[in-house]
Design brief:
Helices cover 0% and strands 51% of the residues. With 103 residues, it is an all-beta fold.
């Protein structure tokens, strides 16, 4: 289990939250819940958007299971320059320095 996640019951998941779907951090777009069936418990169908690739990710989990929620920190930075090997030079928000470890 990763250290930058919170654990919640899958029934507590809501649209707009971030969740790990198929081990990818996603913003939840849609949630649908099925009822208990003859051969098993209720399932939750989740559709999310991968926050890095912007691809749709779908997952189906039992409603009795827990979900991992990634801790997402958004930060706006200004691009200063494009470096070798597709790295970018970024100006930190407080203008105290630069960051050059992002592709």
């Amino acid at each position: 289990m990763a250290s930058n996640v919170e654990i919640i019951a899958s029934n507590d998941l809501r649209v707009g939250m971030y969740a790990l779907l198929k081990n990818k951090p996603c913003k939840v777009l849609e949630i649908s819940r099925s009822k208990n069936g003859k051969h098993g418990g209720a399932k939750i169908h989740i559709i999310g958007l991968d926050i890095f690739s912007l691809k749709k990710v779908e997952d189906l989990i039992p409603s009795s299971h827990n979900m991992e929620l990634p801790i997402v920190k958004k930060e706006e930075l200004s691009v200063l320059d494009m470096l070798q090997d597709r790295y970018v030079s970024l100006l930190l928000k407080d203008m105290s320095g630069t960051r050059q470890d992002i592709r």
